[in-house]
Amino acid sequence: MRRTIPALVLAAVLLLVGCGSTAALTPSAAGPSAEKSLILATTTSTQDSGLLDELLPQFTRDSGWQVKTLAVGSGQAIELGRRGEADVLLVHSPAAEQAFVAEGTAGQRRLVMHNDFVLVGPGSDPAGIRGLDSVGAVAKIAAARALFVSRGDDSGTHAREKDLWKKAGITPEGSWYQATGQGMGATLRVASEKAGYTLSDRATYLAQRDTLALDVLSEGDPGLLNVYHVIEMTTKAGERVQPGGAQAFADWIVSPTVQQQVGEFGRATFGQPLFTPDAGKDEAGLGA
């Protein structure tokens, strides 16, 4: 049976493609090798950072599975899994993931890696947040009514941003608070063009830093840890789900060889790795 991509998701992915994403759109049942083709629903940060461009061709060589990628927000990726429209998820919204797995249609959820979130903004820093903790920083942005650009897309990044506003006791609203409804790379570009602040995962910021007029102004807060998990889907979510492909991908990405690659990714280009490999670690130590 041919698996189709819903119109709303297709529109979102086409928007991401227009903003530089290389997410593939072909349904998993297309082509002569459909039995070895799976759909990976993942956050835009793994796409925008370039990590998937490095890893996925190797996965195909190692396993024979072709991967069709849907790079959307973590909330959208989880919804694709819930509807049986993705075979495996790579996401970074722990609370939403835990609630989803508890529903009973997903298989294993395994720790893969982490990096962190950073608050970025113009070097002139009109709100004066440089060096503050994350909650204090968003409070000063709101007090100054300085432009804040939100993803507003139900992603893991958006969830963390909303948590910061909640901790600061602020409901962000007004002309100073703007949502793009787009992925991380596109949101960073909007913030740069408008000289605004935004919350970004460090990997996507570093991957695009040379094209942005944005500096890291608040970082290192323990509350800004950004943890990624891989979640295998099962046929309980839908008869078209391919659990064999899901397990093959999940086993592969947590394997020692690939975890080493994850830990080296970005070092040559940026002088630091963009992700820290975590497979097999105690999640409690990461707050995941």
UniProtKB/TrEMBL annotation:
PROSITE patterns: PROKAR_LIPOPROTEIN. Residues 1-23 form the signal peptide. Residues 34-256 form the PBP domain. The keyword Signal applies. Gene3D superfamilies: Periplasmic binding protein-like II. The keyword Signal applies. It comes from the Bacteria. Keywords: Signal. This is Substrate-binding domain-containing protein. It comes from Pseudonocardia charpentierae.
